[in-house]
Amino acid sequence: MSSFEFFAPCPRGLEAALAAELRDLGAHAAITVGADVPGGVHFSGEWSAAMAANLHSRIASRVLLKIAARPYRNEHDIFAFALEQPWERWFTANQTLRIDVTAIKSPLRSLEFTTLKVKDAVCDRLRDKTGARPNIDTAEPDVRIFVFVTATDCTLYLDTSGEPLFKRGWRLDKGAAPLRENLAAGILRLTGWTPDTPLYDPMCGSGTFLAEAVQQALGVAPGVQRRFGFEKLKSYDITAWQTLKVAAMDKARAARGANVRDLPIFGSDISGDMLEKARANLARAGVPTLSLKQLDARNMIAPSAAPGILVANPPYGERIEVRGRGPRGEARPTARSERGVRGERGGYGGNARGDDDDAPRGFERAHADELGAEFFLAFGSALKQHFAGWRAFMLTSDRGLPGQLRLRESTKTPLYNGALECRLFRFDVVAGPVRRRDGDAQDGAAADH
Ligand SMILES: C[S@@+](CC[C@H](N)C(=O)[O-])C[C@H]1O[C@@H](n2cnc3c(N)ncnc32)[C@H](O)[C@@H]1O
Question: Quick one: signal sequence residues (predicted)?
Protein backbone atom coordinates (compact mmCIF):
# COMPACT_ATOMS: atom_id res chain seq x y z
CA MET A 1 0.00 0.00 0.00
CA SER A 2 1.35 3.47 -0.85
CA SER A 3 1.58 6.29 1.61
CA PHE A 4 0.64 9.80 0.52
CA GLU A 5 1.22 13.26 1.89
CA PHE A 6 -1.83 15.42 2.49
CA PHE A 7 -2.54 18.98 3.58
CA ALA A 8 -5.76 19.95 5.33
CA PRO A 9 -6.46 23.71 5.24
CA CYS A 10 -8.67 25.17 7.99
CA PRO A 11 -9.82 28.56 9.29
CA ARG A 12 -6.79 30.42 10.66
CA GLY A 13 -6.48 30.01 14.41
CA LEU A 14 -7.77 26.42 14.39
CA GLU A 15 -4.58 24.67 13.24
CA ALA A 16 -3.75 23.07 16.61
CA ALA A 17 -7.39 22.05 17.11
CA LEU A 18 -7.39 20.43 13.67
CA ALA A 19 -4.11 18.60 14.36
CA ALA A 20 -5.62 17.19 17.58
CA GLU A 21 -8.79 16.18 15.74
CA LEU A 22 -6.81 14.43 13.00
CA ARG A 23 -4.91 12.49 15.67
CA ASP A 24 -8.28 11.35 17.07
CA LEU A 25 -9.27 10.02 13.63
CA GLY A 26 -6.90 7.10 14.20
CA ALA A 27 -9.98 5.01 15.05
CA HIS A 28 -11.06 5.20 11.40
CA ALA A 29 -7.73 5.06 9.54
CA ALA A 30 -3.99 5.18 10.22
CA ILE A 31 -3.02 8.86 10.07
CA THR A 32 0.37 10.34 10.84
CA VAL A 33 -0.11 13.98 11.74
CA GLY A 34 2.75 16.28 10.79
CA ALA A 35 3.36 19.97 11.36
CA ASP A 36 0.62 22.50 11.67
CA VAL A 37 1.42 25.66 9.74
CA PRO A 38 -0.55 28.90 9.41
CA GLY A 39 -3.79 27.89 7.70
CA GLY A 40 -3.64 24.11 7.96
CA VAL A 41 -2.08 20.82 8.97
CA HIS A 42 0.13 18.35 7.10
CA PHE A 43 -0.56 14.64 7.52
CA SER A 44 0.29 11.40 5.78
CA GLY A 45 -1.25 7.99 5.37
CA GLU A 46 -2.75 5.60 2.87
CA TRP A 47 -5.65 6.65 0.68
CA SER A 48 -8.04 5.59 3.45
CA ALA A 49 -6.61 8.42 5.62
CA ALA A 50 -7.87 10.99 3.08
CA MET A 51 -11.29 9.32 2.91
CA ALA A 52 -11.58 9.22 6.71
CA ALA A 53 -10.46 12.85 7.08
CA ASN A 54 -13.01 13.99 4.48
CA LEU A 55 -15.80 12.05 6.15
CA HIS A 56 -14.97 12.71 9.81
CA SER A 57 -13.06 15.98 10.15
CA ARG A 58 -15.31 18.71 11.52
CA ILE A 59 -12.60 21.39 11.33
CA ALA A 60 -10.76 20.91 8.00
CA SER A 61 -11.92 23.01 5.03
CA ARG A 62 -10.53 20.50 2.52
CA VAL A 63 -8.17 17.56 2.19
CA LEU A 64 -5.52 18.08 -0.49
CA LEU A 65 -3.21 15.41 -1.87
CA LYS A 66 0.31 16.75 -2.30
CA ILE A 67 1.50 15.99 -5.83
CA ALA A 68 4.94 17.68 -5.73
CA ALA A 69 6.84 20.73 -4.49
CA ARG A 70 9.79 22.56 -6.04
CA PRO A 71 11.61 25.91 -5.97
CA TYR A 72 10.68 28.27 -8.84
CA ARG A 73 11.64 31.68 -10.19
CA ASN A 74 8.80 32.58 -12.55
CA GLU A 75 5.61 31.41 -14.32
CA HIS A 76 7.62 29.45 -16.90
CA ASP A 77 9.20 27.32 -14.16
CA ILE A 78 5.73 26.63 -12.78
CA PHE A 79 4.48 25.67 -16.25
CA ALA A 80 7.36 23.19 -16.73
CA PHE A 81 6.84 21.79 -13.24
CA ALA A 82 3.09 21.22 -13.79
CA LEU A 83 3.75 19.69 -17.24
CA GLU A 84 6.00 17.02 -15.69
CA GLN A 85 3.40 15.67 -13.28
CA PRO A 86 1.60 12.41 -14.16
CA TRP A 87 -1.92 13.89 -13.97
CA GLU A 88 -3.15 11.00 -16.15
CA ARG A 89 -2.67 8.77 -13.10
CA TRP A 90 -5.45 10.64 -11.28
CA PHE A 91 -8.05 11.70 -13.84
CA THR A 92 -9.01 11.48 -17.50
CA ALA A 93 -9.31 14.08 -20.25
CA ASN A 94 -13.09 13.58 -20.19
CA GLN A 95 -13.29 15.19 -16.79
CA THR A 96 -13.65 18.92 -16.23
CA LEU A 97 -11.02 20.88 -14.37
CA ARG A 98 -10.57 23.93 -12.17
CA ILE A 99 -7.24 25.44 -11.10
CA ASP A 100 -6.82 27.74 -8.07
CA VAL A 101 -3.57 29.53 -7.28
CA THR A 102 -2.81 31.00 -3.85
CA ALA A 103 0.36 33.00 -3.33
CA ILE A 104 2.09 34.44 -0.29
CA LYS A 105 4.89 36.97 -0.82
CA SER A 106 5.49 35.59 -4.30
CA PRO A 107 7.33 37.55 -7.00
CA LEU A 108 4.77 36.44 -9.62
CA ARG A 109 3.31 39.38 -11.48
CA SER A 110 -0.11 37.94 -12.19
CA LEU A 111 -1.88 35.06 -10.45
CA GLU A 112 -4.37 34.96 -13.30
CA PHE A 113 -1.54 34.40 -15.78
CA THR A 114 -0.03 31.70 -13.51
CA THR A 115 -3.42 29.98 -13.32
CA LEU A 116 -3.58 29.97 -17.12
CA LYS A 117 -0.05 28.54 -17.35
CA VAL A 118 -0.90 25.68 -14.96
CA LYS A 119 -4.12 25.01 -16.86
CA ASP A 120 -2.18 24.88 -20.15
CA ALA A 121 0.44 22.55 -18.63
CA VAL A 122 -2.13 20.09 -17.24
CA CYS A 123 -4.16 20.11 -20.47
CA ASP A 124 -1.02 19.71 -22.63
CA ARG A 125 0.09 16.79 -20.47
CA LEU A 126 -3.27 15.03 -20.82
CA ARG A 127 -3.34 15.68 -24.59
CA ASP A 128 0.19 14.28 -25.00
CA LYS A 129 -0.66 11.15 -22.99
CA THR A 130 -4.26 10.50 -24.06
CA GLY A 131 -4.88 12.52 -27.22
CA ALA A 132 -7.57 14.73 -25.63
CA ARG A 133 -7.63 17.92 -23.55
CA PRO A 134 -9.90 18.30 -20.53
CA ASN A 135 -12.39 21.19 -20.42
CA ILE A 136 -12.43 23.86 -17.75
CA ASP A 137 -15.49 24.25 -15.52
CA THR A 138 -15.02 26.76 -12.72
CA ALA A 139 -18.52 26.22 -11.24
CA GLU A 140 -18.83 22.46 -10.90
CA PRO A 141 -15.55 20.87 -11.90
CA ASP A 142 -14.91 17.12 -11.60
CA VAL A 143 -11.33 17.77 -10.54
CA ARG A 144 -9.69 20.68 -8.71
CA ILE A 145 -5.99 21.45 -8.64
CA PHE A 146 -4.64 23.83 -6.01
CA VAL A 147 -1.32 25.59 -6.51
CA PHE A 148 0.34 27.13 -3.48
CA VAL A 149 3.18 29.53 -4.12
CA THR A 150 5.53 31.13 -1.58
CA ALA A 151 8.44 33.49 -2.25
CA THR A 152 10.59 30.53 -3.30
CA ASP A 153 8.55 27.33 -3.69
CA CYS A 154 5.59 26.04 -5.63
CA THR A 155 3.47 23.12 -4.37
CA LEU A 156 0.88 21.33 -6.49
CA TYR A 157 -2.08 19.72 -4.78
CA LEU A 158 -4.95 17.61 -6.07
CA ASP A 159 -8.16 18.19 -4.16
CA THR A 160 -9.91 15.16 -2.67
CA SER A 161 -12.90 17.02 -1.17
CA GLY A 162 -14.82 18.70 -4.02
CA GLU A 163 -17.10 21.22 -2.35
CA PRO A 164 -15.43 22.66 0.78
CA LEU A 165 -15.97 20.48 3.84
CA PHE A 166 -17.90 23.11 5.80
CA LYS A 167 -20.71 22.39 3.36
CA ARG A 168 -22.13 19.47 5.26
CA GLY A 169 -25.22 19.15 3.11
CA TRP A 170 -27.75 20.10 5.80
CA ARG A 171 -27.81 23.88 5.63
CA LEU A 172 -30.45 25.38 3.42
CA ASP A 173 -31.68 28.09 5.75
CA LYS A 174 -29.00 30.64 6.42
CA GLY A 175 -29.34 33.50 8.83
CA ALA A 176 -28.01 36.94 7.98
CA ALA A 177 -24.53 36.03 9.28
CA PRO A 178 -24.21 32.29 9.79
CA LEU A 179 -20.98 30.85 11.03
CA ARG A 180 -19.15 28.39 8.85
CA GLU A 181 -19.76 24.93 10.20
CA ASN A 182 -16.07 24.10 10.55
CA LEU A 183 -15.39 27.33 12.43
CA ALA A 184 -18.23 26.50 14.84
CA ALA A 185 -16.90 22.94 15.29
CA GLY A 186 -13.38 24.26 15.89
CA ILE A 187 -14.64 26.74 18.48
CA LEU A 188 -16.47 23.93 20.27
CA ARG A 189 -13.19 22.06 20.40
CA LEU A 190 -11.35 25.14 21.73
CA THR A 191 -13.93 25.48 24.52
CA GLY A 192 -13.08 21.96 25.71
CA TRP A 193 -16.79 21.07 25.57
CA THR A 194 -17.68 17.39 25.90
CA PRO A 195 -21.19 16.05 25.26
CA ASP A 196 -21.93 15.40 28.94
CA THR A 197 -21.47 19.12 29.75
CA PRO A 198 -24.39 21.53 29.30
CA LEU A 199 -24.00 23.77 26.26
CA TYR A 200 -26.05 26.92 25.64
CA ASP A 201 -26.11 29.34 22.70
CA PRO A 202 -28.37 32.29 23.66
CA MET A 203 -28.09 33.88 20.17
CA CYS A 204 -28.24 30.68 18.19
CA GLY A 205 -29.43 32.15 14.88
CA SER A 206 -29.66 29.38 12.30
CA GLY A 207 -28.25 26.92 14.85
CA THR A 208 -24.71 26.25 13.62
CA PHE A 209 -23.15 25.66 17.07
CA LEU A 210 -26.15 23.53 18.06
CA ALA A 211 -26.15 21.34 14.94
CA GLU A 212 -22.39 20.79 15.20
CA ALA A 213 -22.64 19.96 18.91
CA VAL A 214 -25.55 17.54 18.52
CA GLN A 215 -23.87 15.76 15.61
CA GLN A 216 -20.71 15.46 17.67
CA ALA A 217 -22.59 14.23 20.75
CA LEU A 218 -24.34 11.54 18.72
CA GLY A 219 -21.24 10.58 16.73
CA VAL A 220 -22.73 11.63 13.38
CA ALA A 221 -19.95 12.06 10.82
CA PRO A 222 -20.08 15.61 9.41
CA GLY A 223 -19.69 14.33 5.84
CA VAL A 224 -22.23 11.51 5.95
CA GLN A 225 -24.75 13.37 3.76
CA ARG A 226 -22.46 14.55 1.00
CA ARG A 227 -20.26 13.44 -1.88
CA PHE A 228 -16.51 14.02 -2.20
CA GLY A 229 -14.06 14.88 -4.96
CA PHE A 230 -12.13 11.62 -4.46
CA GLU A 231 -15.18 9.71 -5.74
CA LYS A 232 -14.33 11.06 -9.21
CA LEU A 233 -10.63 10.20 -9.20
CA LYS A 234 -9.17 7.10 -10.85
CA SER A 235 -7.83 5.96 -7.49
CA TYR A 236 -11.36 5.73 -6.06
CA ASP A 237 -11.56 2.53 -4.06
CA ILE A 238 -15.30 2.06 -3.86
CA THR A 239 -15.08 -1.01 -1.60
CA ALA A 240 -12.95 0.72 1.04
CA TRP A 241 -15.17 3.83 0.83
CA GLN A 242 -18.37 1.79 1.23
CA THR A 243 -16.99 0.23 4.42
CA LEU A 244 -16.31 3.67 5.93
CA LYS A 245 -19.56 5.17 4.67
CA VAL A 246 -21.83 2.31 5.79
CA ALA A 247 -20.42 2.52 9.34
CA ALA A 248 -21.09 6.28 9.31
CA MET A 249 -24.61 5.80 7.96
CA ASP A 250 -25.41 3.27 10.70
CA LYS A 251 -24.40 5.84 13.31
CA ALA A 252 -26.44 8.54 11.60
CA ARG A 253 -29.51 6.26 11.53
CA ALA A 254 -29.15 5.56 15.25
CA ALA A 255 -28.85 9.32 15.92
CA ARG A 256 -32.26 9.97 14.37
CA GLY A 257 -33.89 7.94 17.13
CA ALA A 258 -31.90 9.54 19.97
CA ASN A 259 -33.85 11.05 22.83
CA VAL A 260 -33.47 14.81 22.83
CA ARG A 261 -33.91 14.85 26.62
CA ASP A 262 -30.56 13.06 26.95
CA LEU A 263 -28.77 15.97 25.29
CA PRO A 264 -27.90 18.92 27.55
CA ILE A 265 -27.71 21.25 24.53
CA PHE A 266 -29.83 24.43 24.57
CA GLY A 267 -30.46 27.32 22.23
CA SER A 268 -32.45 30.53 22.13
CA ASP A 269 -32.68 33.63 19.97
CA ILE A 270 -34.82 36.73 19.97
CA SER A 271 -35.97 36.08 16.42
CA GLY A 272 -38.73 33.56 15.75
CA ASP A 273 -37.68 33.46 12.07
CA MET A 274 -34.15 32.45 13.03
CA LEU A 275 -35.45 29.74 15.33
CA GLU A 276 -37.51 28.33 12.45
CA LYS A 277 -34.35 28.19 10.36
CA ALA A 278 -32.47 26.52 13.20
CA ARG A 279 -35.20 23.89 13.58
CA ALA A 280 -35.19 23.20 9.85
CA ASN A 281 -31.39 22.91 9.84
CA LEU A 282 -31.36 20.53 12.82
CA ALA A 283 -33.98 18.37 11.12
CA ARG A 284 -31.92 18.23 7.92
CA ALA A 285 -28.77 17.49 9.94
CA GLY A 286 -30.61 14.32 10.94
CA VAL A 287 -30.60 15.03 14.66
CA PRO A 288 -33.49 15.42 17.10
CA THR A 289 -34.92 18.95 17.17
CA LEU A 290 -33.88 20.54 20.43
CA SER A 291 -36.35 22.61 22.32
CA LEU A 292 -35.38 26.13 21.29
CA LYS A 293 -36.73 29.21 23.05
CA GLN A 294 -37.57 32.63 21.69
CA LEU A 295 -35.90 34.90 24.21
CA ASP A 296 -34.08 38.21 24.49
CA ALA A 297 -30.59 37.21 25.64
CA ARG A 298 -30.71 39.93 28.31
CA ASN A 299 -33.40 37.88 30.04
CA MET A 300 -31.59 34.56 29.83
CA ILE A 301 -31.17 32.26 32.82
CA ALA A 302 -29.05 29.12 33.02
CA PRO A 303 -30.88 26.30 31.22
CA SER A 304 -29.46 23.57 33.47
CA ALA A 305 -28.74 23.17 37.18
CA ALA A 306 -25.17 22.07 36.48
CA PRO A 307 -22.85 24.78 35.12
CA GLY A 308 -21.66 24.36 31.57
CA ILE A 309 -20.42 26.22 28.54
CA LEU A 310 -22.12 29.20 26.94
CA VAL A 311 -21.06 29.88 23.37
CA ALA A 312 -22.22 32.58 20.99
CA ASN A 313 -21.28 34.85 18.19
CA PRO A 314 -23.26 37.94 19.08
CA PRO A 315 -24.49 40.45 16.54
CA TYR A 316 -21.82 42.89 15.45
CA GLY A 317 -21.08 45.69 13.03
CA GLU A 318 -22.97 46.41 9.87
CA ARG A 319 -24.01 42.88 9.09
CA ILE A 320 -26.42 42.24 11.88
CA GLU A 321 -27.85 44.42 14.58
CA VAL A 322 -28.73 43.71 18.16
CA ARG A 323 -32.48 43.36 18.44
CA GLY A 324 -34.98 43.83 21.22
CA ARG A 325 -36.32 46.78 23.13
CA GLY A 326 -34.18 49.71 24.14
CA PRO A 327 -33.82 51.03 27.68
CA ARG A 328 -36.90 53.21 27.25
CA GLY A 329 -38.89 50.36 25.71
CA GLU A 330 -38.44 51.45 22.06
CA ALA A 331 -38.01 48.75 19.43
CA ARG A 332 -34.48 48.21 18.15
CA PRO A 333 -34.01 48.48 14.42
CA THR A 334 -33.84 45.27 12.46
CA ALA A 335 -32.61 44.98 8.89
CA ARG A 336 -36.19 45.42 7.66
CA SER A 337 -37.57 47.98 10.10
CA GLU A 338 -34.41 50.07 9.80
CA ARG A 339 -35.28 50.99 6.22
CA GLY A 340 -38.77 52.10 7.23
CA VAL A 341 -37.48 54.22 10.08
CA ARG A 342 -34.88 55.83 7.82
CA GLY A 343 -37.59 56.71 5.30
CA GLU A 344 -39.68 58.42 7.97
CA ARG A 345 -36.79 60.46 9.28
CA GLY A 346 -35.90 61.51 5.75
CA GLY A 347 -39.39 63.05 5.58
CA TYR A 348 -38.80 65.64 8.24
CA GLY A 349 -35.03 65.69 8.49
CA GLY A 350 -34.27 66.41 4.83
CA ASN A 351 -32.95 69.64 3.37
CA ALA A 352 -33.59 71.54 0.19
CA ARG A 353 -30.72 69.87 -1.66
CA GLY A 354 -32.31 66.48 -1.11
CA ASP A 355 -29.05 65.06 0.28
CA ASP A 356 -30.72 64.24 3.56
CA ASP A 357 -29.52 60.66 3.74
CA ASP A 358 -26.27 61.05 5.70
CA ALA A 359 -27.58 62.81 8.75
CA PRO A 360 -30.36 60.28 9.48
CA ARG A 361 -28.02 57.37 8.77
CA GLY A 362 -25.44 58.79 11.19
CA PHE A 363 -28.24 59.28 13.67
CA GLU A 364 -29.41 55.69 13.14
CA ARG A 365 -25.91 54.36 13.63
CA ALA A 366 -25.42 56.32 16.82
CA HIS A 367 -28.83 55.10 17.99
CA ALA A 368 -27.96 51.48 17.12
CA ASP A 369 -24.57 51.84 18.87
CA GLU A 370 -26.27 53.15 21.98
CA LEU A 371 -28.75 50.27 21.93
CA GLY A 372 -25.92 47.81 21.30
CA ALA A 373 -23.93 49.16 24.26
CA GLU A 374 -27.00 48.89 26.48
CA PHE A 375 -27.63 45.34 25.24
CA PHE A 376 -24.10 44.12 26.05
CA LEU A 377 -24.18 45.75 29.49
CA ALA A 378 -27.46 43.97 30.28
CA PHE A 379 -26.22 40.71 28.73
CA GLY A 380 -23.07 40.89 30.90
CA SER A 381 -25.29 41.42 33.95
CA ALA A 382 -27.42 38.38 33.07
CA LEU A 383 -24.22 36.34 32.80
CA LYS A 384 -23.02 37.49 36.20
CA GLN A 385 -26.35 36.96 37.89
CA HIS A 386 -27.42 33.61 36.46
CA PHE A 387 -24.34 31.81 35.16
CA ALA A 388 -21.94 31.50 38.08
CA GLY A 389 -19.62 28.57 37.44
CA TRP A 390 -20.16 28.69 33.67
CA ARG A 391 -17.50 29.40 31.10
CA ALA A 392 -18.70 31.75 28.39
CA PHE A 393 -17.05 31.89 24.95
CA MET A 394 -17.92 34.70 22.57
CA LEU A 395 -16.65 35.12 19.02
CA THR A 396 -16.61 38.71 17.81
CA SER A 397 -14.63 41.11 15.68
CA ASP A 398 -15.27 43.78 18.33
CA ARG A 399 -12.24 43.89 20.61
CA GLY A 400 -14.10 46.12 23.01
CA LEU A 401 -16.56 43.36 23.95
CA PRO A 402 -15.13 42.62 27.44
CA GLY A 403 -15.43 46.32 28.31
CA GLN A 404 -19.00 46.44 27.07
CA LEU A 405 -19.89 43.37 29.13
CA ARG A 406 -17.98 44.73 32.15
CA LEU A 407 -16.20 41.38 32.33
CA ARG A 408 -12.54 40.59 32.22
CA GLU A 409 -11.66 37.84 29.75
CA SER A 410 -9.57 34.83 30.88
CA THR A 411 -8.22 34.27 27.39
CA LYS A 412 -8.64 35.69 23.92
CA THR A 413 -7.82 33.61 20.87
CA PRO A 414 -7.43 35.18 17.42
CA LEU A 415 -9.65 33.41 14.86
CA TYR A 416 -10.74 34.25 11.34
CA ASN A 417 -14.39 34.14 10.30
CA GLY A 418 -13.70 34.09 6.54
CA ALA A 419 -11.55 37.19 6.01
CA LEU A 420 -12.80 38.87 9.19
CA GLU A 421 -10.30 38.91 12.05
CA CYS A 422 -12.08 37.98 15.27
CA ARG A 423 -11.32 37.09 18.86
CA LEU A 424 -12.76 34.20 20.80
CA PHE A 425 -13.08 35.68 24.30
CA ARG A 426 -13.38 33.35 27.24
CA PHE A 427 -15.00 34.54 30.45
CA ASP A 428 -14.98 32.43 33.61
CA VAL A 429 -18.06 33.54 35.45
CA VAL A 430 -17.44 33.32 39.17
CA ALA A 431 -19.73 33.99 42.12
CA GLY A 432 -18.99 37.21 43.95
CA PRO A 433 -19.90 40.86 44.18
CA VAL A 434 -19.92 42.89 41.01
CA ARG A 435 -17.75 45.94 41.36
CA ARG A 436 -19.13 48.88 39.47
CA ARG A 437 -16.80 51.25 37.67
CA ASP A 438 -17.46 53.83 40.38
CA GLY A 439 -15.95 51.34 42.87
CA ASP A 440 -19.19 50.46 44.71
CA ALA A 441 -19.90 46.78 45.17
CA GLN A 442 -23.32 45.38 44.29
CA ASP A 443 -24.83 41.92 44.65
CA GLY A 444 -24.25 39.44 41.87
CA ALA A 445 -21.72 37.08 40.44
CA ALA A 446 -18.96 38.15 38.20
CA ALA A 447 -15.53 38.16 36.83
CA ASP A 448 -15.09 41.87 37.26
CA HIS A 449 -13.72 44.13 34.55
C1 LIG B 1 -24.30 36.73 14.28
S2 LIG B 1 -25.88 36.04 14.50
C3 LIG B 1 -25.58 34.43 15.13
C4 LIG B 1 -25.44 33.47 14.01
C5 LIG B 1 -25.50 32.04 14.45
N6 LIG B 1 -24.33 31.64 15.23
C7 LIG B 1 -25.64 31.16 13.22
O8 LIG B 1 -24.77 30.36 12.98
O9 LIG B 1 -26.60 31.34 12.46
C10 LIG B 1 -26.50 36.87 15.91
C11 LIG B 1 -27.87 36.41 16.35
O12 LIG B 1 -28.23 37.19 17.49
C13 LIG B 1 -29.62 37.32 17.49
N14 LIG B 1 -29.98 38.46 18.37
C15 LIG B 1 -29.91 39.79 18.11
N16 LIG B 1 -30.33 40.48 19.21
C17 LIG B 1 -30.66 39.57 20.16
C18 LIG B 1 -31.15 39.66 21.49
N19 LIG B 1 -31.42 40.85 22.06
N20 LIG B 1 -31.36 38.51 22.18
C21 LIG B 1 -31.12 37.29 21.62
N22 LIG B 1 -30.67 37.14 20.34
C23 LIG B 1 -30.43 38.27 19.62
C24 LIG B 1 -29.98 37.53 16.03
O25 LIG B 1 -31.35 37.20 15.81
C26 LIG B 1 -29.00 36.58 15.36
O27 LIG B 1 -29.61 35.34 15.11
Answer: none
